Amino acid sequence: MTIGIIGLGYVGLTFAIAAADKGITVYGVEKEQRIKLSLADGHAHFFEPGLDDKIKECMGKKFFCVQEFPRDVQFDAFMITVGTPLFEQTKEPNFDYIVSSLEAISNVYSGRELVILRSTVSVGTSRNVVLPRLKDMAGNADCTPMIAMCPERTVEGKALVELTTLPQVVSGNTLQAVSLAKQLFARITSQLVEAQSLEEAELIKLYCNIYRDMNFALGNVLNVAAQTFGLDGISVIRNANEGYARSNIASPGFVAGPCLEKDAYILMNNMQEGKSKDFIFAARHFNESLEDDVVDWAEHKIGAPAQEKELLLTGMAFKGVPETSDLRGSSSVYIARKLKEKGYKLRLHDFVARHEELQALNLGEVYEDLNKACEGIAGMLVLNNCSRYHAFHFTQAMEGVRILDVWDCCDELREREERDTIGNMLIEEKI
Description:
Elements: E1 2-6, H1 10-21, E2 25-29, H2 33-40, H3 51-58, E3 63-66, E4 77-80, H4 96-101, E5 114-117, H5 125-138, E6 146-149, H6 159-165, E7 168-170, H7 175-186, E8 192-194, H8 198-228, H9 233-241, H10 257-260, H11 263-268, H12 275-301, E9 310-314, H13 331-341, E10 345-349, H14 355-360, E11 365-367, H15 370-374, E12 379-382, E13 402-405, E14 419-420
Helix pairs in contact: 1-3, 1-6, 8-9, 8-12, 12-13
């Protein structure tokens, strides 16, 4: 089996390597030079456990990074893995990347190959946006192109494991499309779930992420509710869950990243107005509001911006467990931008995110040594839950420094009076 993948970002590259590792021949088209240079050196342009070793094993054997798909290769399927960003002002999904990605197969697509959409899209996009364009590309009015919606479902930090163990949702517009999709994914994972339609598969992907978004929103709501009674929300939630099987309240914290920050908006894009849509929006909006709460904490506890009041923001990737270098959709980045706009001078640090990517944010000086970054600061915000904070030993430079440890993960700083967490940061400011 031979497949072509359009886009070697996180979704495309992890799937390409997982497929090549199972003996499938994979050609990946990538336009961005830095990604191609990284792959030529045998490593990914992002951090993912085990991925670099697999790239070295597969590159030039079963996996090929190319500028365009070769005409002398017979492909069984093409897979679209490009992202679906939101328009900044309207929060509506932008499908330009998906539409333009079809140009990458225009020189080799005959109308007989299966086209798999793996990107997250609004319900109806596969049938109403992609399929008509495939018909035009096939150049045959009587042709019925085969399209399958097979959404990506992995979590960053565990992609290679989950690609081979999680159930894979498959769907298609024809019986043959479904059959071919099953043949491909059966090579990678033993568990397949056949959706009833393209639309059902699109909705399953959105439901899974919005379910998580809402669960996290409930934890955040209850955290604030606890503080209205003068109680520490983290403590209340932990003790409510302790040994009680019917309570699994999510720990409060940021709900962000390249999926969770936007999938609610992608679903709402073409939903009818009503209480369901209002409910989804309310949960998303509440999670987003935590960023402003952190900015309010800084203004209240650190004071007005001044040159001598430098703030250290550590934990810039959108999550810490499992570890990732991904800065896309990170609440930490949004908080840094808001603080900089207010005039604060910032320092940035992350244990995993790449130094050059942090520098490219242009939000402050970037440090690789956390203790060095702590010298002379007025405040520190620990913004993700990376496990490395638990055992980290801070120097005496932290004496008297105001700290917001959002996720309560810095063991050594836990007893300090100058330290707050998300469980008590609102009590003095707003409650």
